[in-house]
Structures are given as C-alpha cells and as structure tokens.
C-alpha cells in the first residue's frame, strides 16, 4: 500500500511548525508539503531547515481552502493527511490510511489530545450543524449551558472517543482525505476565506455524494489549538467566522432554515454586540455593523453567493495543475 502524504497549511506558525514537521518525519511520513500563506515571521525559514519537506510559499494569503488544494494537488499519494501546524503526530498513520482505502470512504479523522493528554471532546468530532445548533452558537447558549441536548448532539459528547466508527464531521485539523474523492468533489471551496467551515462543507458534500466518513482513534495527535487564529485580530476573527457560517447555511440549508439562521445572526450580533461595543468601542461597532449588513444582504436576497452547487471548487484548474 502506497504511503500517505501530508499537507500542512501555515500562516505565522513559526512557534509550532518545527515540532509538527519533526513528528511527521519521525512517524515515517516521507512526502510532506507545507503551503505557506505569506507568513511574516520565521515559518518559512523553519520549513527550509528540513530539506525532506517540500515548500510552496504563496506571495499572499490565499486562505486555508486554496492552500490545502495546492498542497493536495502537489502530492501523488492516494490518501493525504491534512494536519494543522499546532498538531503533533504521536502514532504511525497506518490504521488511518487503511481505513481511508476502504470502499466508499472519503475521509478519516483521528483522535486529538489536549495539552493534558485528554481527548478533545467537542472539537475532534462533531455532527453536521443544524439550524438549532447554529442558533445556539450564535446566542452563546452552548457556552452558557454546554450540556444542553442540542450541543451534546452537535459536539458528539454522547460518543465514546475510544470507539472507531462512522461519523459526520471529524476536525479538519487532523483529517485524512481520499485524493480521488477530493478531486471528484472539486476540492475545497475557496470562497470560505480565510478559514472556517471549508472542511465542514467538503465533508457534507462527500456525505451527500454517498461516501462514508470514519473515525480511527488508534491514530493520535496532540493538538494545542488556535495556533494561527490567535495571530488574527479580534475583528478579523469575528467577521470571518460569521461570514463563512452564513455562506455555509446558504449552501446547505433549506430556504427556511437559511433565513432563520440569518435572522438569528442579525439579532444575536445586535444583542451581543452591544456589550462588545461597551468594552471595545468603535472597532466592535464596525465589525458588528459589517456582520449585520452581510446577513441582511443574504436574507433579503441581495447576495446569493453559495446557493448554487454548480461550481463548488476549482476542479478545472486542478486538471492542469496549480494554519
């Protein structure tokens, strides 16, 4: 069986990338590609210190989805591991690769541990979001009452982290893809920029196409979490998350479900934004206004981006080659 390859997308990941790459190489992953999105720190220098790793250095930040597509296209392996630069592979990939090659399988997730060695329950496995789950997220209910039934189901808190099986949404931070399925589905949708929801969208499309998604807990990585996200400003994080959430619901929810979530997004932003404006002032006011404007434009039908399934990814450019 041909070994799996690995893709690491980086953006200002100097502090984490060395540990990530050394762990991959130590576990026998010989075909590793780093796609760097115009880091301004020493990330590229760290990668270049490891000649066994291939580097694609983008001159601007293309976002996670586009960079992941670049990296996967650069590999020949039938199975490709996407791993965040703040994750450290602790075991060989054999069990994950074997699962990924089973008939009808599109992707396999592995077990993620936190700094204390505990499974990252609620993050490493989730079910696909429903309108109720996203509305609970928007209003902060899942933070105030994590054990509520909607959140327990959404974050798979009812699943045994030691039990392998079929799942819906393993974390994109540690996800092996079947390359032929990735190509068939047109790759990751690059309009999810700069990050968030591109992995959920791809996995949902894989499920809709009849493929299975598995979880293999024998393959383990330590995950620090939010390594590159911390480098974004609060305003950037807020807008990117909301904008891509709205894009996801436009692509995958019914008209009624989409409009319900958009209306909830407007109300939740107005309510929660008031407190943020008191604390953060004008920057919070600007980002809240932008989020509300984006949701309202989609709600009123002025921005239909993402509603049609005719051009999910960039398959046409892949045919000729292209954290």
Overview of this protein structure:
- This protein has 323 residues and is an alpha/beta fold.
- The C terminus is likely disordered.
- It contains 13 helices and eleven strands.
- It folds into two domains: 189 residues, Spore Coat Polysaccharide Biosynthesis Protein SpsA, Chain A, CATH 3.90.550; 67 residues, no CATH class.
- Helix 5 packs parallel to helix 11.
- 44% of the residues are buried.
- The longest helix is centred in the last third of the chain and has 26 residues.
What is the structure about, briefly put?
The chain is an alpha/beta fold and 323 residues long. Helix content is 43%, strand content 18%.
Chain-wise SSE layout:
Elements: E1 5-10, H1 14-26, E2 32-37, H2 43-48, E3 53-58, H3 64-73, E4 79-83, E5 87-89, H4 94-100, E6 105-113, E7 125-126, H5 131-138, H6 141-144, H7 149-154, E8 165-166, E9 169-170, E10 174-178, H8 179-184, H9 198-208, E11 212-223, H10 234-252, H11 255-280, H12 282-299, H13 315-318
Parallel strand pairs: 1-2, 1-4, 2-3, 6-11
Antiparallel strand pairs: 4-10, 5-11, 6-10, 7-9, 8-11
Helix pairs in contact: 5-11, 9-10, 10-11, 10-12, 11-12
From the spread of the alpha carbons, the general shape counts as globular
Mean pLDDT over the full residue set = 90
Query: What is the percentage of strand-forming residues?
Result: 15-25%
Could you name the CATH homologous superfamily of the largest domain? Spore Coat Polysaccharide Biosynthesis Protein SpsA, Chain A
Total domains: 2
Q: Which fold name is given in CATH as the topology of the largest domain? A: Spore Coat Polysaccharide Biosynthesis Protein SpsA, Chain A
**Briefly, what CATH class of the largest domain?**
Alpha Beta
Give helix % range: 40-55%
Task: Tell how many strands the DSSP assignment holds.
Answer: 11
Biggest sheet: strands, sense, closure? 9 strands, mixed
Number of helices: 13
Q: What CATH architecture label of the largest domain applies?
A: Alpha-Beta Complex
Q: Could you spell the SSE succession in H and E letters?
A: EHEHEHEEHEEHHHEEEHHEHHHH
| Class inferred from helices and paired strands | alpha/beta
Which spans of ≥5 residues are poorly predicted at pLDDT below 50?
304-323
């Amino acid at each position: 069986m041909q070994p799996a390859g690995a893709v690491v997308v980086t953006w200002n990941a100097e502090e984490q990338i060395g540990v990530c790459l050394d762990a991959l190489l130590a576990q026998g992953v010989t075909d590793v590609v780093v796609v760097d999105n115009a880091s301004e720190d020493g990330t590229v220098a760290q990668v270049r210190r490891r000649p066994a790793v291939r580097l694609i250095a983008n001159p601007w930040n293309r976002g996670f989805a586009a960079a992941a597509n670049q990296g996967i296209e650069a590999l020949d392996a039938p199975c490709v591991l996407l791993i965040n630069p703040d994750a450290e592979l602790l075991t060989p990939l054999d069990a994950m690769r074997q699962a990924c090659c089973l008939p009808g399988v599109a992707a396999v997730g592995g077990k993620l541990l936190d700094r204390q060695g505990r499974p990252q329950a609620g993050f490493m496995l989730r079910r696909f979001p429903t309108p109720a789950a996203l509305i609970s997220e928007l209003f902060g209910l899942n933070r105030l009452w994590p054990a509520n039934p909607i959140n327990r189901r959404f974050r798979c808190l009812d699943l045994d982290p030691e039990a392998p099986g079929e799942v819906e949404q393993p974390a994109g931070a540690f996800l092996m893809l079947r390359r032929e399925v990735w190509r068939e589905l047109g790759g990751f949708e690059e309009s999810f920029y700069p990050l968030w929801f591109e992995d959920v969208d791809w996995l949902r499309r894989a499920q809709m196409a009849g493929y299975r998604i598995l979880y293999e807990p024998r393959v383990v990585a330590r995950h620090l979490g939010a390594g590159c996200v911390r480098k974004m400003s609060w305003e950037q994080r807020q807008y990117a998350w909301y904008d891509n959430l709205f894009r996801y619901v436009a692509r995958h929810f019914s008209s009624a479900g989409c409009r319900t979530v958009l209306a909830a997004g407007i109300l939740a932003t107005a309510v929660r934004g008031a407190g943020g404006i008191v604390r953060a002032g004008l920057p919070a006011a600007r980002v809240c206004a932008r989020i509300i404007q984006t949701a309202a434009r989609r709600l009123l039908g002025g921005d239909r981006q993402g509603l049609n399934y005719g051009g999910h990814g960039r398959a046409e450019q892949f045919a000729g080659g292209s954290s």
